Amino acid sequence: MKNKKKIKTNISNKILIIIFLILMGIFAYLFLKQLELQNIKVNITNGNQIKVNFNKPKFNNVYCFVSYDDKKPILNSNKWVLSKNNSCTFKLNESNFSLYLKYNNKIIKVKELNNLGKIFNLKINQEKVYLAIDDVYKLELTYKSIGNINKDVTWSSSNPNIASIDNEGNIIPLSAGNTTIIAEINDESIKSEVVVTNLINKRPDSYNYNRSFLSCNMFSEEDNNLLDEILKVRVENVGYQTRAGVVEVARFITLEFPYRIAYYAENGRMGFREYKVDGEGRYYHKGLYLHRSRFSNIEYTSQGPKTWGCDMYNIVTKRHGKNGLDCSGYITWVLVNGGFDPGDVGAGVTENIFDLTDMGIKVKFTKNIISSGDVKVGDLLSSEGPSGGHIALIIAEDEDYYYVSESLWDGAHTGVTVIAYNKETIINRYYWVILMDSYYKEDGKYSSHWKEK
Q1: CA end-to-end span of the chain, whole Å?
Q2: Strand partners of residue 273
Q3: Are strands 117-124 and 141-147 parallel, antiparallel or unpaired?
Q4: What is the pLDDT of residues 208-236, one digit of tens each?
Q5: Is there a single domain that holds both residue 148 and residue 174?
Q6: Structural domain tally of the chain?
Q7: In this structure, is residue 301 part of a structural domain?
Q8: Long-range CB contacts (< 8 A, 24+ apart) of 316-320?
Q9: Maximum distance among all alpha carbons in the chain?
């Protein structure tokens, strides 16, 4: 019996020892846990700040370090920041970052920082795009960012039968209609509305002299409205009331609009002595003159109102012809649509009356002025002389040529057109250049040629 009691006592003692050891182990584990960092959490706060929170270990201070080159810091670096209230706060920049914590002479790298960042001021280069069916346009994003973000862009089209978009942001038009392009980046998105239309042409590498003349009543009111909107957006994209905006008007009407507007000698001007006439060889209004709905703009008439391309009697030539624009009528229309108000004035042959050659600095057109670099796209050219005057606008240049937009009354290229003049011989055609810096005041998004992107 004594042996049995002794055995039971030994077993009880062993159980107590095991329980004691287990309790001691738990106590030791809990104690050691208090010496370790726990519950590390990282968040973006207050726009461009990152905050790391943790349960601070006992008996040890915690230091924080943000690295922008992913190099592990050394223990004695003077860039370690002492935590306060179980947290550290850093101001981030646009670079990717790594985060390190130091305590008890140990350095640990904080994990799970992928996509811990933000995008700010996400913008797209064009919120509304008008495209000819055979054209291509590249959308581009700009933004500011902080932290570790995925900068891959996902592009999509709401109606890929109208226009698709590739991984680089190039819009590929397929048929006339509307679609919405959506760009997504790091959980942010932005849209661009796309209108594909057959009312305009893709801008060619060189001017097409064989374009057909505009005929009467070719466009509906809806078409006219859309073309006006496209022209307005084209100008706004490069700068309304700038040199670039004026040039863009001339480039649009000669390169994108699919028809050539006829030359028509003016039947008068809106404010010119007793010959108050509007819309007959001149159209001093914003937008194109293609539909009878525009007659509401016309205050003074002689033989009209008739839109561009419609047959009308001309009191100068004493015969009928397609209504259009004369040389000064064309240049004033371009200026008006570019955001300026020169007045319904002439080309520059009327003495003691303000005209187009008075708007800038009129300089003799010579090889010296050409080589000086003072002549710019957007300046006017005049052949004013004893026998009359003619006014035109430079809309592009390259090393050898000025590309001049003008409305011509005779020759092989009559009507509103673009002529490439060699820089060596153009002075034989134009006597004056009118330098327009003081008139435009700003260049806007200026480009020396329409082929430039």
Answers
A1: 106
A2: none
A3: antiparallel
A4: 888 999 999 999 999 999 999 999 999 99
A5: yes
A6: 3
A7: yes
A8: 316/265, 316/266, 316/267, 317/265
A9: 147
